[in-house]
Amino acid sequence: MELPQNEEPIEIVELDEDSQLCIVKKNYCWSWIAIDRLGKKFIGFVCGKRDTETFLELWKKLKNRDINGFCSDYWKSYSEVIPSEKHMESKAETFTVEGYNSRIRHYLARFKRKGKCYSKSKTMLENSLKLLFLKLNNQLNIII
């Protein structure tokens, strides 16, 4: 799913993945998110497996943007795809995206750890995330 894009250059994008139980397929669905560190905005996300193929879907949304650098943890998919001159691997450099993961868990019960809420479909999970991201980016005028 696409979020509205601003064409201004982005200094640093932080990347992370988080899991959520999706009952229909009886397995975990991973949400991969990209955050503009300085602009404090969600700039992209995808849902799927925790593999390089799923991260490539997110990368396709980001690669044509004017982004100076990427920060991520040490998950192998990041280093396989992101050019090394633009990539910094460090848990210490993902503080913004980890904070946003906390906000996701706060607003969406299905992301709470050890919770009883779950998604019944990947589509509803994506729609929930998109609505939340639009609201937190101040691009949607509804009350949450």
From TrEMBL:
Coiled-coil intervals: none
Domain of life per record: Bacteria
One MF term in the entry's GO annotations: transposase activity
GO biological process terms held by the UniProt record: DNA transposition
Keywords: DNA recombination, Transposition
NCBIfam families (UniProt xref): transpos_IS1
Recorded family membership: Belongs to the transposase 27 family.
Function noted in UniProt: Absolutely required for transposition of IS1.
Protein name: Insertion element IS1 1/5/6 protein insB
Organism from which the protein derives: Capnocytophaga canimorsus
